[in-house]
Design brief:
By secondary structure, the chain is of the alpha+beta class. It is built from 24 helices and 24 strands.
Length: 728
C-alpha cells in the first residue's frame, strides 16, 4: 500500500510539473523543497526576556514587544490635529496637479506586478489595469492631490505584518522570526514619489549607498576593494572596520529629519507630508496564514515603505559627517572614508606612504577608531550591534595555510585579508549547488518541466546565486570559472537529454546558455555600464587612485611622479581590470569607449519602418523612402557587430556609399554599444544643414538613446555625443 501511494504521488507530481512548468516555472518552484525553511510553522516561542510563549495571544504580544515599540511619550496625534501648526509648509511643493499626476504615473511604471498588496488587496497590477479607465484616472488624481497638499489619508497607512522564519536562526525565539510589513500599494505609490524627490534634495552623504538610484551594494563593495587594492600595491597598509546599526529604521527621530529637510529647498516642500508619514500606525499580525491580532507602533519609520530607507539615509547623513570630522581630526595624515549601505557602516583607513605604513600599528588605529565611532553613535541615539562589529587588516604577505586567512562578510560578500575572494566564490558555488539539489524533484530530461523552463530556473535563480559578487573576483576568477562550469554542466544536463560524460561545450550550446567566461565577463560589463551611467558613486576612481593622483593605466602605476611596471596582469585593482576590458581606456592613442555623464534632456524622434526582417528588398526600399519623405531626411545606415576575437566593431555609411567610417571597441562592450558608436559617427559625418534618418536594427540601441534623452544620464561618451548632435 505504501509503495502504491508513493508511486501515485510521484505520478501526480510529474503530471503537475509537465502541465504547469512550461507556462510558468516559478509556480512549480514554489512547491519544491524549501532550502531555507521559509515554510516552517511557528511552535512555542521564547522572548528576549526568556519568557515562554505558548498561546497565540502570548506569541502575538511577545512578537510585538520584541520587534516593535510603543512609547507613551511618542506621537499619538490623529490626522488633522496638527494642520494649523504645520500650515506654514502647506502648498509649497511648487508642483501643479498635472505635473504631480505625471510623477505618480512614472512611479507606478517603476513598480513590479508581483509586489504583494496590503490589507485592502489592491496591488500594482490591478492599478495598472484600470489606469486608462475613469477609476484609474480618479485614483491617480487623488494620489496627486494629496501629495500636493501634503496630506496622507489614514487608509494609506493600514498594513499587515507577516512573520516569516529567518534562514539559519533559532525559530523557537521571537528574534528568529522576521516581520514583513505589507502596506497598501496606493499609499506606497505616493511614498515612492516623495522618495524619488528627496533623493535629489542634496541631503545625502556622498558615500551613502543602498536605496539610492545608481548606488548598489556591488558598487559600494567595489569602491572599498578598489581603494584597498591600489593602496596595497603602493606598499601601503589598509584597515577596515565594520558596524551594523541595531534596530534600523526604528531609530529615526522625526525632529532630526525635519531639521535636515529645512536645509534644502526640495526638502522643505515635503516637511508637512513627512510629519504625516511619522504618525502612529496600527497593523494586523499574521503567521502561518492566519491573522492573530492587532498591534501598534509610534517609533521610527515603518518597515516595508519605499520612503523609509531614504528617510533613514537623510537622518544618518549628518551623523556620518560627524564621524568623518572626528576621525580626520584624530589622524589628519591618513586617508579615511566612511561608505555605508543603508544601516551597514564601513570605515576604510588607508596609509599610502610606505615608510609611514611600516610604523603604524593598524590594529590599534582600528580600535581607537571604534571608540570614536561608538561615542558619536551614543551621542546621536544610534545603537550599534556589538556582536556584528568586525575589523580586518589587509596584508600583502602570503600565509602558509589558507585556514589562517582572516575573513569578514559585508553586504553578502566574503572579503579576506588578501582580497582574493577565494572564500567568497567557494561559498557562492556551494550555495548554488545546494539550491540545485532542492530543485532536483522538478524533473529531468525524461519527465517534469520543459527544457525551456529548466533554463529559466537555472539562469534566473541558480546562476544568479553563484554569480553574486563575481564582479569583484578579479584574481580568483580562473578557479571560479572552473567550478562555475561544473555547476552549469550539472544543471543543464537536465534539459538537454545529455548523458554523463557529454562535452561541456556541447551541453551549454544545446541549452542556449552563455559559457561561464562570457557570463562572468557580462557581469563585469553590466557593472561598468552602471558606473558609467552615473559616475557620482564611484566614477572618481576611474581615472584617479583615491588620493587625487592619476590611477594606473593598466600597465603602469604613477607613484611619487615615477612610472614602473606592476604585476603579471598589469593591473593593481579590479576596477582598472574591468575598465580595460570594457574599453574605457585609450590604447595606442586610439579611444575605444569612455563614460558619458550628464547631458541636457531632449526628445528623441523615432520612426518605425513598415517592413520585417524577412521582407523583400523592394519592400525595404519603399519603407525607407516613405520614412525619408516623412522626415525630409537623408538616409544614413549604421551597424554594430562582433568579430571572432570578441571585439565589437561599429561602421556607418551614407546613402550611395559616398562617405563611410568605422571603429573597433573593447571586448566587453555590447553590440548595441557598437550600434550607438556607429550612430555617432554617422551624425558627425552627415551634413549639419539637412535632416538625417538613422537606420538601426538594434532595439536596445534605440531604447538607450531615447532613455538618455528622457533622463539626461548617458552611460557612454557615444550616447552623450549622439544626444548633443540630435539637440543641435
Amino acid at each position: 500500500m505504501r509503495t502504491m501511494v508513493r508511486e501515485k504521488k510521484k505520478e501526480c507530481w510529474q503530471e503537475f510539473c509537465e502541465e504547469n512548468g512550461e507556462k510558468d516555472p516559478w509556480e512549480i518552484v514554489k512547491w519544491a523543497k524549501d532550502p531555507w525553511h521559509l515554510k516552517a510553522t511557528m511552535g512555542d516561542l521564547t522572548d528576549t526576556a526568556n519568557i515562554s510563549l505558548k498561546t497565540d495571544n502570548d506569541k502575538k504580544n511577545g512578537l510585538i514587544r520584541d520587534h516593535f515599540e510603543w512609547r507613551d511619550d511618542g506621537r499619538k496625534v490623529e490626522e488633522g490635529e496638527e494642520i494649523e501648526q504645520m500650515g506654514r509648509y502647506s502648498g509649497v511643493t511648487g508642483i501643479t496637479i498635472e505635473e504631480m499626476k505625471e510623477l505618480v504615473r512614472k512611479a507606478l511604471a517603476g513598480t513590479s506586478n508581483k509586489s504583494t498588496p496590503g490589507p485592502d488587496g489592491i496591488g500594482y497590477k490591478l492599478i495598472k489595469r484600470v489606469l486608462n479607465l475613469r477609476l484609474g484616472q480618479e485614483l491617480i488624481g487623488e494620489v496627486a492631490e494629496n501629495l500636493v497638499q501634503g496630506r496622507i489619508p489614514k487608509e494609506w497607512q493600514h498594513s499587515k505584518v507577516v512573520m516569516i522564519p529567518k534562514p539559519g536562526k533559532d525559530h523557537s525565539k521571537t528574534k528568529g522570526w522576521r516581520p514583513i510589513n505589507l502596506i497598501n500599494c496606493i499609499g506606497k505609490l505616493g511614498e515612492k514619489v516623495v522618495a524619488d524627490r528627496l533623493q535629489e534634495s542634496g541631503l545625502l552623504h556622498r558615500h551613502q549607498f543602498g536605496s539610492v538610484k545608481g548606488r548598489s551594494a556591488t558598487e559600494a563593495a567595489l569602491r572599498v576593494v578598489t581603494r584597498a587594492q591600489r593602496c596595497i600595491a603602493a606598499e601601503g597598509v589598509v584597515g577596515w572596520n565594520f558596524w551594523d546599526v541595531k534596530g534600523g529604521f526604528q531609530n529615526v527621530r522625526v525632529e532630526d529629519v525635519i531639521k535636515e529637510l529645512e536645509k534644502s529647498e526640495e526638502g522643505r516642500k515635503w516637511i508637512l507630508w513627512v510629519k504625516e508619514f511619522f504618525r502612529a500606525r496600527e497593523f494586523e499580525l499574521e503567521w502561518d496564514g492566519k491573522v492573530r491580532g492587532k498591534g501598534k507602533t509610534n517609533i521610527g519609520a515603518p518597515q516595508g515603505s519605499p520612503l523609509s530607507p531614504v528617510i533613514f539615509l537623510i537622518w544618518m547623513a549628518p551623523i556620518i559627517t560627524k564621524m568623518e570630522e572626528a576621525l580626520n581630526n584624530q589622524w589628519p595624515t591618513f586617508d579615511l572614508e566612511l561608505p555605508s549601505y543603508v544601516d551597514d557602516l564601513h570605515l576604510g583607513v588607508s596609509i599610502w606612504d610606505r615608510i609611514e605604513a611600516r610604523g603604524v600599528p593598524m590594529d590599534g588605529v582600528l580600535e581607537k577608531a571604534d571608540e570614536i565611532v561608538q561615542r558619536i553613535t551614543v551621542e546621536n541615539h544610534l545603537p550599534l550591534e556589538d556582536s556584528k562589529h568586525e575589523r580586518l587588516v589587509l596584508r600583502n604577505k602570503r600565509r602558509r595555510k589558507n585556514k589562517d586567512v582572516k575573513c569578514v562578510k559585508w553586504l553578502g560578500i566574503i572579503m579576506d585579508e588578501r582580497v582574493t575572494f577565494k572564500e567568497h566564490w567557494k561559498a557562492r558555488i556551494q550555495k548554488a549547488r545546494a539550491m540545485l539539489v532542492q530543485f532536483n524533484g522538478l524533473g529531468n530530461s525524461q519527465w517534469g518541466i520543459s527544457a525551456t523552463s529548466w533554463r529559466q530556473i537555472y539562469t534566473g535563480m541558480i546562476r544568479a546565486v553563484a554569480l553574486w559578487g563575481s564582479e569583484l573576483g578579479w584574481r580568483g576568477q580562473r578557479d571560479w570559472e572552473r567550478e562555475f562550469e561544473q555547476l552549469q554542466y550539472q544543471a543543464l544536463k537536465k534539459c538537454g537529454n545529455a548523458t554523463h560524460g557529454s562535452r561541456i561545450e556541447l551541453v551549454t550550446q544545446i541549452a542556449g546558455v552563455e559559457s561561464p567566461r562570457m557570463a562572468l565577463d557580462a557581469a563585469q560589463a553590466r557593472l561598468m555600464g552602471k558606473i558609467m551611467r552615473d559616475t557620482t558613486a564611484i566614477g572618481d576612481l576611474l581615472f584617479e587612485d583615491g588620493r587625487g593622483r592619476r590611477a594606473e593605466t593598466g600597465r603602469e602605476w604613477d607613484e611619487f611622479g615615477q612610472e614602473h611596471t606592476v604585476g603579471p596582469d598589469g593591473f593593481t585593482s579590479v576596477l582598472t581590470a574591468i575598465k580595460s576590458k570594457a574599453g574605457v581606456l585609450k590604447e595606442e592613442g586610439h579611444e575605444r569607449i569612455s563614460y558619458g555623464g550628464r547631458v541636457e534632456k531632449v526628445e528623441v524622434p523615432e520612426v518605425k519602418l513598415q517592413a520585417q526582417a524577412d521582407s523583400k528588398a523592394e519592400v525595404w526600399v519603399e519603407a525607407i523612402n516613405q520614412a525619408k519623405e516623412y522626415c525630409e531626411a537623408t538616409g544614413v545606415y549604421t551597424d554594430g557587430s562582433m568579430n571572432e576575437e570578441g571585439m565589437v566593431g561599429a561602421g556607418w555609411y551614407m546613402e550611395g556609399g559616398k562617405r563611410q567610417g568605422g571603429v573597433t571597441l573593447g571586448k566587453l562592450v555590447t553590440v548595441w554599444d557598437g550600434e550607438v558608436c556607429g550612430v555617432r559617427g554617422a551624425l558627425e559625418d552627415a551634413p549639419s544643414e539637412t535632416n538625417v534618418l538613422i537606420l538601426s536594427d538594434s532595439q536596445a540601441a534605440i531604447a538607450a538613446v531615447k532613455n538618455v534623452g528622457r533622463t539626461g544620464k548617458a552611460r557612454t561618451a557615444d550616447l552623450r555625443q549622439v544626444l548633443m548632435n540630435i539637440k543641435e
